[in-house]
Amino acid sequence: MARQNRTRALLGVALGGTAVLAAACSGPGGVRPGHGWASATTFALARVDGLVTVVGVDARRARAESLAVVPQQSDDTEAVSPRLVRLADGRWLVTVPRGGGGPDRRYVVNRAEHVLDGLPGDQRLRRVLPGRTLVAEVAALPDAVTAGRAPASTVLVRDPRDWSTRRELKVPGTIGLAASDPGSDTVCLSGDAGVTVAELTGGGVRSVPVTGVVGLVCPDGHPVIVRSAAGGSPARVRATLTRTADATTVSVAGGRVDGVAAHGASIVLAVAAGTGTEVIEIDAAGGEERHRVRLDGMAASLALTWSPAGWLVYTENTVTRVEPPTARTKEFPLPGTLLDG
Fold first, then answer.
1. Do residues 268 and 311 touch, judged by C-beta distance below 8 A?
2. What is d(CA 253, CA 301) in angstroms, rounded to the nearest whole number?
3. CA 318 from chain center: how many Å?
């Protein structure tokens, strides 16, 4: 995910050493794992027959199928959703939060062996933000204080080669949205204290004075902040971009922003308007609208990600492949209920 990264409320994952855990070939319950490991262009997490399942999404063939069931333990908690993230080296990581204060359980999706490799953990309720050479683990709730004794959240900077901790950074307030780009060792964070940009390699932290953030991405370490435009509601969804050296701001009027993602020279928005969703691609430098596709009947979306075959817009039970240059779309079902995409 720049996996988009779905810019939702922050709760998530951490990493550790290695151990191996095989996924059952037949699958527990009613889950029947498929064989599309090689053809999957991306992955998602879904609850299938009551079980957390890694789903392979083949965007080219418009197909999604269960591939591996994530092991369940007695102290798993359903208060926080499991998460999925892709590191810069191509590995996909699954994190399952635990109750009672225990560290999150973590697994690597092993495409070659068709199993999940378990990782011992030492942190709980953290979201992993992959950078180019380092990884940031962001606290879900304030766990520190500033020099003035105000609440603050920590960011652990780790080396993914051995998961050693390089440094610990401190960010004011509660972090709500978090984003990174595997092409840069910079992460962007948003919360009740505004937007913070953290440099993983040097440890520098700077603030961007902005409030009312509804979406956040961090292409090449540059924060792209999405806000709802004040004032009236136009008949057509309108996105206006303002770019400065510190940040890019996209103001959206006429709809509710459900998702934002960035890839290459484009910023893409999923905006709910009426009974449908507008997928709008704009130029990241100048703000000109490049393409717009309307998905009629999609009143809300849960995730927006890029794939080589087109943009993927997720709802609770479906995926829609969108090709903005041609306006072609293809909807196909998930095998269960989306948890993370």
1. yes
2. 17
3. 17
69 DSSP β-pair partners: 53
The pTM (predicted TM-score) of the whole model is 0.88
Phi, psi for residue 176 in degrees, rounded to 5? -105, -45
Q: What are 316-339's pLDDT values in tens digits?
A: 999 999 999 999 999 999 999 999
Residue 6: half-sphere exposure toward Cβ, Cα within 13 Å: 24
Separation CA 139–CA 172 (nearest Å): 12
* 127 DSSP assignment: E
- Per-residue pLDDT of 76-125, as tens digits, reads 777 678 999 999 999 999 988 877 777 788 899 999 999 999 887 667 66
* Long-range contact set of residues 277-283: C-beta below 8 Å, sequence gap at least 24: 277/301, 277/313, 278/237, 279/304, 279/311, 279/313, 279/322, 279/324, 280/237, 280/239, 281/324, 282/239, 282/241, 282/250, 283/241
Average pLDDT over residues 235-244: 93
Tokens linked to 311: 């943009």
As a whole number, mean pLDDT of residues 11-29 equals 39
| CA–CA separation, 107 and 195 (whole Å) | 30
Name the amino acid, one letter, at 122. Answer: D
| Residue 11 to residue 105: CA distance in whole angstroms | 13
